[in-house]
Amino acid sequence: MLFNSLEFLLFFPAVCLGYYVIPHRFRYLFLLACSYFFYMCWNPQYALLMLTSTAITYASGLLLARANAIREERRRLRARKWCVAVSFVSNLAILFFFKYFQFAADTVIRVLHMIQIEAQPPAFDVILPVGISFYTFQALSYTVDVYRGEIYAEKNFLKYALFVSFFPQLVAGPIERSKNLLIQINERHRFDFARVRDGLLLMLYGFFQKVVLAEYLGMAVDGIYNTYAERTGFQLLVATVLFAFQIYCDFGSYSNIAIGAARVMGFRLMENFNTPYFAVSVSDFWRRWHISLSTWFRDYLYIPLGGNRKGRVRKWFNLMVVFVTSGLWHGASWHFVFWGFLNGAYQVIGEWLRPLRREINRVFGVDESAFSHRLLRALLTFALIDISWIFFRASGGRDGVQILLRILGLAGTRWFTWGDNLAAMGLTRNTAELLAVSLLILFVVDLCRYRGLRLTEWIVRQGLWFRWLVYFAGIFGILIFGVYGPGYDASQFIYFQF
C-alpha cells in the first residue's frame, strides 16, 4: 500500500478513528494488526520474514536479560556476546539471501570466468521483500541497545512486534530506535487538535513533494537517463541536477508523510532530513541526509570499529568501511558500492586537505563565516554530491562513467543542441514552468527551515481565514497539478527498493 494511493487515503483515516475510539490498553493490538495488514498488501508471505526477524531479536533481548543475571563475569560476558552474535548472524543471513545472494553469486562467477573457470550461477526467482533493510536494521538496533543497557528487554512480544512493524515508517524509515519508539507504545495518547493539525500539515507537504515534484522530476530524469547514449552533455547535466532534487523530494516526502502520520496518532519519530543541500561540506551533508541511517551506522558500526579514537588513519579507514557498507546497504550492485566509496573518499580527502585549506584562507584573509564563502562551499558540496548521484541513478558502473564523460564533454559528441531539450525530458512548457515554481517553493521552505523558521508554526499563528486559505491552496494545488488518477500507476518511492 503506497502513501500516494487511494487505498492509503482510505486506510489512514480509518486507522486513526479506530485508534482514538479503542480503549488505551487495546490500542497496541489494533495498531499491530493494522501494521501487518499494511505490509501484507504488498506480499502476505513476506510478513513471515518480518515476524521471524521480530521473534529472533525479541528472544535475544530476553536472553540478554537472563545473561545479565549470571554472577560470574566471564560467563556473563560470553553469554551476552553469543546472544548478540546469534541475533546479528541470523538476521543478516536472511537479509543476505533475499537481497545479496544473487549479487554475490554473480560476482563469484565473474571472478571464476576471469581465471578461465566456467560456472553457472544458481538462479533463484526471489522478489526482494519491501523494506527488509529498514526493519532488519531497526530490529538489530534493539538487540544492541539491550546489550548496552540503554533499554530494558521488552517482555510483551506483541508490543515489541509493533515497534518493528509500525506502519508509518515500516518500509522506508525513519529507522527508529527502541529507546525512542518502543517506550512510546506504552504512552497514553489523547486526541490533541494542535498535534493532529501539525501532523496533517506535514503530510500535506509530503504529498506535494511526492505527487507534484518527485513525479514530474522523475519523468524528466527518466527521459534522459534511460536513453543517455542519445543525449547531449547539457541534457545529462540538467537531468543529473534534477535527479538530486527528485531523490530528495521522493525520500523526503516519505519521511514527512511517515512522521506526520505518526504525529497524528501521538507518536514522535526522529527527523530524517534537515536541509541537506544547504550543507557546506560532504560530512555536513551526511549529518543532514537520511539522518536515521547515518546515525545508525555511526552508533552501531563506526563507533564499535573505533571511531576517531585510534588515530587519524584508523578514523579514515573506519569512515571508508561505513560508507562502502552504506553503499551496499542501498543496493546489491557495484555501482552502489562505488557511490558509497566516493562519498567516503570525499570526506577522507577533505579532512586530509583541511590544514592546507585553512592555511590558504589565512594567507589570503578569507573570512570563513562570510556568506560568499559559505555559498561557494555549499555549491561545491552540491556539485560533489551530484557527481556521486550519477552512479546512484545509473543502471551500472559503466553507464555512470559514460554519463559523467558526456557531462564533462569528453565523450566526443556534441555537448549542446538547441530546441529539443524540453521534449527530450518529456516536458512541455507548462510542466517546465510548474516544476520551476514547485522547486522555488521547495527552496523557500528549506531556506526558512535553515534560518530557524518553521513555516507550519508561522502559518498556524496567522488568522483563521489565512490558515484555511493556505490549507485549501495546498490541497487543491496537489489535486490540480499532481500526477495521479485513472491510467496512472502510482510509482513506488525510490527507497522501497532498499
Helix-residue proportion: 55-70%
| Major β-sheet profile | none
Order of helices and strands: HHHHHHHHHHHHHHHHHHHH
Bulk shape: globular
What is the total tally of β strands? Answer: 0
Number of helices: 20
Rg on CA atoms, Å: 24 Å
From the helix content, strand content and strand pairing, which structural class follows?
A: mainly alpha
Strand % is under 5%
Average pLDDT reading:
89
Low-confidence stretches are none
Distance between the first and last residues' Cα: 16 Å
Q: What features would you describe in this structure?
A:
With 498 residues, the protein is mainly α. Among the domains are: 27-188, no CATH class; 193-273 and 407-498, no CATH class. The chain is built from 20 helices and no strands. It has helices at 6-21, 24-40, 47-67, 73-114, 132-148, 157-165, 178-184, 193-225, 233-264, 282-288, 291-305, 312-330, 334-352, 354-363, 371-393, 397-407, 421-424, 429-450, 455-460, 464-481.
Write the layout of secondary structure elements.
Elements: H1 6-21, H2 24-40, H3 47-67, H4 73-114, H5 132-148, H6 157-165, H7 178-184, H8 193-225, H9 233-264, H10 282-288, H11 291-305, H12 312-330, H13 334-352, H14 354-363, H15 371-393, H16 397-407, H17 421-424, H18 429-450, H19 455-460, H20 464-481
Helix pairs in contact: 1-2, 2-6, 3-4, 3-5, 3-6, 4-5, 8-9, 8-18, 8-20, 9-15, 9-16, 11-12, 12-13, 13-15, 15-16
